[in-house]
Amino acid sequence: MNYFPDEVIEHVFDFVTSHKDRNAISLVCKSWYKIERYSRQRVFIGNCYATNPERLLRRFPCLKSLTLKGKPHFADFNLVPHEWGGFVQPWIEALARSRVGLEELRLKRMVVTDESLELLSRSFVNFKSLVLVSCEGFTTDGLASIAANCRHLRDLDLQENEIEDHRGQWLSCFPDTCTTLVTLNFACLEGETNLVALERLVARSPNLKSLKLNRAVPLDALARLMACAPQIVDLGVGSYENDPDSESYLKLKAAIKKCTSLRSLSGFLEAAPHCLSAFHPICHNLTSLNLSYAAEIHGSHLIKLIQHCKKLQRLWILDSIGDKGLEVVASTCKELQELRVFPSDLLGGGNTAVTEEGLVAISAGCPKLHSILYFCQQMTNAALVTVAKNCPNFIRFRLCILEPNKPDHVTSQPLDEGFGAIVKACKSLRRLSLSGLLTDQVFLYIGMYANQLEMLSIAFAGDTDKGMLYVLNGCKKMKKLEIRDSPFGDTALLADVSKYETMRSLWMSSCEVTLSGCKRLAEKAPWLNVEIINESDNNRMEQNGHEGRQKVDKLYLYRTVVGTRMDAPPFVWIL
Amino acid sequence: MSTEEELQSNVSVASSSPTSNCISRSTVGGLKEHNYLGLSDCSSSVGSSTLSGLADDDKATISLKATELTLGLPGSQSPARDTDLNLMTPVKLDEKPFFPLLPSKDEICSSSQKNNASGNKRGFSDTMDQFAEAKSSVYTEKNWMFPEVAATQSVTKKDVPQSTPKGHSSTTNNSSSPPAAKAQIVGWPPVRSYRKNTLATTCKNSDEVDGRPGAGALFVKVSMDGAPYLRKVDLRSYTNYGELSSALEKMFTTFTLGQCGSNGAAGKDMLSETKLKDLLNGKDYVLTYEDKDGDWMLVGDVPWEMFIDVCKKLKIMKGCDAIGLAAAPRAVEKSKMRA
């Protein structure tokens, strides 16, 4: 290979797109490292504090697309204070200064400000694609700058962000000359939408493939939008309330029939279930259906809709579907690959929920299933063993039994054997979330069998440090380990410090780890940032005479090549 | 009653009258508990909150409408009131003061008990509702010894009158039920706040969702002057101002205690309490909220249901900062406009 000129090698590298593979290539030799870095266009940084913008730009001067992730995963569940960090501003500033030809920016769990968005919109002439997932800190004013200044904008994809809606006219900030939109997703905006501006925008975007509307877009507007975008592939319906006999509804039905390219449907935040039948004609084409926010659709309407969706590959649903509903899914959706069942009633109303029976039915009926997120009330070892036998191809298996520490409801045993069966059978398992009553035994199984496991989420599980040790010693590919409310302490934390160099991050909250343990770790591993997030003032811990034995509320550690971050707020103590 | 006068001067409600009418009950610990009028007895006071509190004896003259000038917070103790204002949740007699920000003696004791039980971990146990002590101690306690856990679990569940079949969530939609054991674990079940809020808005907007009114969560940010970071609370997990205040008290107590170098362990409590008294002497906090129009209002002037409908953010301000907020008249105006 080294006898070829660089251009040829570079051309070969163009076919290698996965980040893992590109990273591997760059390690082969100096020459390949050099060729690879100049030709890398898409860069993925899983932890924005593992490196900094300067190093990024030094290594990859030709980058066009950057993906950054900020806060740790448990920030999704309110375990990380808002001011913790993850600011995108320094990245955008550095990229702007360097005049790199940025075209795409994808951010997850980061703090984005209007200032950042404005700078972004003005600094990169060819900027095409902005994808923000679970971010916060900005308003619709920031969106207005993006709309106004990005001449070639292709994608504006806002997924589950907390955006302060100033009820402004951001949609009308798209100039009339903007005709390049392919993706427009503003489902997470809470405020009013300028429907006229929206309709005009959709009408002049012939390439629009993905349109996800917010709650404020009513059914008659939807009908008009679909009529001028029959090429739509991915649709997020906002408000779907209407009278089934009204003119708008009839127009909608006609428009839907023309959308023969529609493959993905979501939204239905407000829905009149009896109007769902308007979608039945195109259901047979659907590969993705997300009704996990459609709290008002259940029972027979839901079942009827699903029965038409024979080609479904991805289904996100609320547990109001019930075990019976899941049985319908199992018998209808033979192509199903990914299923997520979310809890509909978080306040203990005791409504219909799903149990282990639904899960078993799905595993039996859907042989192609490889990803599952399942919130349920109860589980048994027997069910999990059956699921493992039916579906040995799981890549992601996330089970959340709503009540912490709940045992097998038939035998009252811990669920060690059930999860053990899963990890033993599913040799490609990359992500696992545990729940229910679990002892150290389950971790023994995980350490023994889960060879490909990259991400593990543990809550209220285990007995002793041995549990955590089994995992750290056994799972060679572990990248992200997050633990809460489990009895793992300093012994496990300190047993193999070099392990953390192979991992992206470790989160431990409400465990038995002490301050002195963390300090020792920080001493042994200067290439780690060991962050302590304390509910109370950090000074308290210092002054306290029993400092060493003080338990740490939240520990977050991650490997980094750039040392301590400078933007940590006062309640984050970096050892 | 010098403390009272001090407090009164910070209350910016039009018709407050310096009064010594506070209904107080003795607790086991010998401290006097106080109601929502926010006027604490100086002998036990370790700092008190001020809210738009007015004297009890004025209540009789106030009309029945819930949005009229109310005396104290909705739900504060008054015989006449209870019968008239059926929007209000009747409040337990031994309800804690609205926002002293410093726990009374027995709260310190109880929280330290919880701490000991949970191995000196302060964080999440603080967010547990005080009513849930029985249930919550099981969950905060690290039940590392399995078989015992299984046993304890089942025992506790039986004891709890309103154990929710669907896992570990709190709150009730029927605010008339007595504060049953509701334990809230922060961040459990692991569902994004965005999802919880979105589902909640949907349920709120729909007329009937299988007869469950207002299910779903409603997270709002709570910030406090001087606290290092803000928190989020789920307004729907409380059924009245009392529960909200207790929860906030717990959450933000750690900041004030922190300043004193206390670690909450039982032995040091006596000392820290006096230190705290000194520290907070003259300091008082009020709870304010930002409503849908972006205005900052004092909490407590509108009925609870209306409050959670309009509240966008909460802020615990120093009383002196909050003087400009003329709560009652504005709140009444606004609520009338909305009604």
From TrEMBL, chain A:
InterPro entries on file: COI1_F-box, F-box_dom, Leu-rich_rpt, Leu-rich_rpt_Cys-con_subtyp, LRR_dom_sf, Transp_inhibit
Keyword Zinc tagged: no
Leader sequence residues: none
SMART domains: FBOX (SM00256), LRR_CC (SM00367)
Pfam families: F-box_5, LRR_6, Transp_inhibit
Molecular function as annotated in GO: auxin binding
Domain F-box: 4-45
GO CC term (a single one): SCF ubiquitin ligase complex
Keyword set, alphabetical order: Auxin signaling pathway, Developmental protein, Nucleus, Ubl conjugation pathway
Locations listed in the record: Nucleus
Protein's UniProt name: F-box domain-containing protein
Protein source organism: Capsella rubella
Automatic annotation (TrEMBL), chain B:
A GO cellular-component term linked to this record: nucleus
PB1 domain sequence ranges: 217-319
Biased composition (Polar residues): 153-168
Keyword Repeat among record annotations: no
Superkingdom in the source lineage: Eukaryota
Entries under PROSITE patterns matching the protein: PB1 (PS51745)
GO biological process: auxin-activated signaling pathway; regulation of DNA-templated transcription
Entry keyword set: Auxin signaling pathway, Nucleus, Repressor, Transcription, Transcription regulation
One Pfam family per UniProt: AUX_IAA
The keyword Transcription regulation belongs to this UniProt entry's keyword annotation: yes
UniProt feature, compositional bias: Low complexity: 9-21, 169-181
Localization terms from the record: Nucleus
Spans annotated as Disordered: 1-22, 153-187
Recorded family membership: Belongs to the Aux/IAA family.
Summary of the function given for this chain in its UniProt record: Aux/IAA proteins are short-lived transcriptional factors that function as repressors of early auxin response genes at low auxin concentrations.
Subunit structure: Homodimers and heterodimers.
PANTHER family: AUXIN-RESPONSIVE PROTEIN IAA17, AUXIN-RESPONSIVE PROTEIN IAA9
Protein name: Auxin-responsive protein
Organism: Capsella rubella
Phylogenetic classification of the source organism: Eukaryota, Viridiplantae, Streptophyta, Embryophyta, Tracheophyta
